[in-house]
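Lab notebook: predicted structure, single chain.

Context: the supervisor wants predicted structures on file for every construct in the current expression panel, including those that have not yet been purified. This is the next one on the list. No modifications to the sequence; it matches the entry in the shared construct table.
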Amino acid sequence: MTGEAQPGNEVRALLAALHGQRRHVLGILDGLDDEELRRAVLPSGWSCLGLTRHLALDVEQFWFRAVVAGDEEVIRGLDDSEDAWRVGSDVRAEEVLERYRREADLADAVISATPADTPLAWWPQHLFGDAHLHNLRDVLLHVITETACHAGHLDAARELIDGRRWLVLTS
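Prediction complete. Output recorded below exactly as produced.
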């Protein structure tokens, strides 16, 4: 490589697990049309598109670019952001899916350049109290768990929309 930091084995393993969950999210949505992506099928009222936008903004962007990296521009934008779970009819579905992919790529850059024990760069104590996560490792484990949980939500929504199920194979 050309002087770029290489993640350690632990971070590479955690990143591989996160990549698997991200593939699950995008895979279970594959083939849904715009109306299906926007359809709320559970009583809580969220849509597949809204959940994907939540993963892009409230998970990937928030945890990696704001909390781990301390990106001032992202942090300033958090107060101005609207409810990520709601996607306006003027927003194209592909824009939301592309934003998720882009935020994942930006997160990967932060993750790959950060050792597992690196303390958090920023935490919104005024909103959430004392931080319960303390370093990149903690954040990665949290985001893997949250993404897996939401992938399961998307599985249920997809089955209700058209009967398709995602087969999860573990090795």
